[in-house]
Amino acid sequence: MRQICVFLLFITLSSCEYFNVKKTSSEAILKEELQTFNWNDVDEYPSFSICDSLTAKQEKQQCFGSVLNTHIATYLQKEAIIVTQDINDTIDLQFQLSEKGVLTLLDAKVDALTIAQIPNIKTLLIKSLDSLPEIFAASKRGKQVTTTFKLPIIINVE
Question: What is the model's pTM?
Answer without folding.
Answer: 0.70
